[in-house]
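Thread: "does anyone have the structure for this chain?"

Original post by V.I.:
We have the sequence but no experimental structure in hand. Need at least a predicted one for the grant figures.
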Amino acid sequence: MDKTAQTILIIRTSAMGDIVMASPLIRGLKQRFPKARLLWLVEPAFAKLLQEHPLLDGVILFDKSRWRMLLKQGKLLVLLGEIRELHNHLRQEAVDMVLDVQGLLRTRLLARLSGADERIGLISKEPGQFLMTCMVPKGGDGRRMGSEYCHLLEVLGGQAGGCQPEVYIANADQVGAQEHLTNAGVVVPYAVFAPFTTRPQKHWFDDRWAELACVLGSRLGLRSVLLGGPADTDRAERIVAATEGYAVNMAGGLALMQSAAVLSRAALVIGVDTGLVHMGTAFRRPTLALFGATRPYLETASPLTRVLYHRLPCSPCRRSPSCEGNFDCMQALTVAEVMQAAERICQVRHQL
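Reply from O.Q.:
Generated one for you, tokens below.
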């Protein structure tokens, strides 16, 4: 590996949780290459996750959605012009080393587009390995959050350390988050729920979220704030309506980093396998991750994160559930179990 790299480009264009889990690369690379400039190539929707990081020298945008639209509309000349523009931008940055930690054909093409002499990627089933100069197996301990990125740092001669994810929030987003909390009548301490994600087999059940909010409110005095995107608003409203005033719906009403700011102040974070839950670990908030169909990790760098997961013979099914919509792995997670874990992790926080 090049020990004198002047500019290093990290490619992890999406998604929110994966970017959070890959964020330890920034600090690890800065320690390994203290004089190097560090850049990150990312889709516009996730750029703010990175822009405030004090050790990152620049964020470069890859507008996948726009390129896909141009291709669909047959506007090939416009698309080629934008590809050339990104190519020129990357060349102007004089990138020496690229780390493609996403492992897709398109990210390998982007690595080649950079013109970097050294292009290092993680081995995956995707084609295009010939576009890279070095392929690294996904090593590390699969039970640990972001272990493949820690392993890559070690391959590069760096120290993974605790491999703690990091997210930084702009002051404007902190102020905006506080305004939303004040307007909703939410005061500290409060809990955050992150119940929503793109795959139904990763969801817990609405009646259990509502019951959990009531128990948290009556037993611990915590009001629960539901976070999510615009598509989650209706479902969040139904959950909140069944909580006897113990929960507030902010799903769809906050920008991404305002949601992060709300989460960063929470006394407790509970959610399914989604990026907001991974942020709970990054902010070192007491966090419970409810996993079933996926099991990306069982351990984290934070002593305040606990994963609740019941392994079944079909686990993890990932994108191919075989339970005919019963989602037995999530059914196994009861409100009583989650509440017991919540009380325990809050006690750990007070002991630290």
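V.I.: this helps a lot. Residues 76-92 form the longest helix (17 residues).
O.Q.: and The two ends are 40 Å apart (CA to CA).
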